[in-house]
Amino acid sequence: TPRAGSQCPACGGPALDVESQRELLLDLAKRSILDKLHLSQRPALSRPVSRAALSTALQHLHGPPQGTLPEDNRGQECEIISFAKTGLSNINQTHLDFHFSDRTAGGMEVQQASLMFFVQLPLNATKTLKVRVLVLSPHDTNLTLATQHLLEVDASGWYQLPLGPEAQAACSRGHLTLKLVPEGQVTQSSVILAEAVHRPFIMAQVRVGGKHRVRRR
Amino acid sequence: GIDCQGRSRMCCRQEFFVDFREIGWHDWIIQPEGYAMNFCTGQCPLHVAGMPGIAASFHTAVLNLLKANTAAGSAAGGSCCVPTARRPLSLLYYDKDSNIIKTDIPDMVVEACGCS
Question: A49 and B98: CB-CB below 8 Å?
């Protein structure tokens, strides 16, 4: 109530002046958003994403059909876009690391995942290029081959590769390593681009905290 | 539902917009630019108990109960001003690994208030 010193009509306590009421409401808004996102505090951004990479990625985001809110026992559903950290790459192969922070105690379950990467073919390319995508899983201290996909590339541009259960399980565990190996045409530079604008990324449909929830009767 | 205006003391919906730039969250929340943290406030005297502002039949039923039980003074706890309609908040934000997360948080925005 704007009159300082009067009584709060709802709880009878001393009324707050307008400024302290605003502070209280802003704090409440912050807390309610962080609670619903299962965060204890706002994230400190480790590696800002360039606006070009952001706008490219957002063009591929397609939310769940509007109006389909998660049913009680399905946990909260969301979409994640994870940009690659390009590790030990060279012109013959590109090493990609993806990290998914575990967002709740109830864990997260990747239901669908696909890799997006950009291929720049040499101008004088005459024939189709094949790109082998290796899904690696940690085994002791090494990385072993879990599965692989072969993609035919006949023009420069973005390519989407749906990833199978092994890669989805690695994403659910929080860390996925891929290796892209172009086959056939040898070029003087890597055909898989990974600089800011063409940074490879993964799009995943994820269910958060849905695995262990008791089904409500 | 009724929106709070001026010095109304009856149960109504108070609009309150949180601008993410103003609280310094615009760097990690990509969309939207703010959050309508509306809330319900005001009093619910017994003659408007059950007046959700939407389905008056519920209100009539409650009034008849009060008349039938002449519960005028004895209704324990009275009636409270509560949300009667809410909608989800869609958020697009960065997590600590700079992944982009798109999620719908159900029941985050109060659309209407009424008396329980």
Answer: yes
- The whole-angstrom separation of Cα B56 and Cα B15 is 23
Among A67, A27, A32, smallest CA distance to B108 is for: A32
What ipTM was predicted for this assembly?
0.81
Q: What is the DSSP letter of A115?
A: E
Structure-token pair, residue A77: 């559903």
Query: Residue A123 and residue A128: Cα distance in Å, rounded?
Result: 13
How far is CA A194 from its chain centroid? 17
Whole-number Å distance between alpha carbons of A43 and B29: 10
The single-letter code of the amino acid at A19 is E
- Contact between B102 and A79 using a beta-carbon 8 Å cutoff: yes
Q: A106 to each of A68, A71, A208, how far by Cα in Å?
A: 22, 16, 7
Which residues make beta-bridge pairs with A162?
A114
The answer to whether residue B2 neighbours chain A at the CB level (below 8 Å) is no
DSSP B43-72: B--GGGTT--SS-HHHHHHHHHHHHHTT-T
Residue A176 to residue A181: CA distance in whole angstroms: 17
Structure tokens at A213: 């929830």
Residue position matching structure tokens 């994640």: A80
B14-51 pLDDT, tens per residue? 999 999 999 999 999 999 999 999 999 888 887 777 76
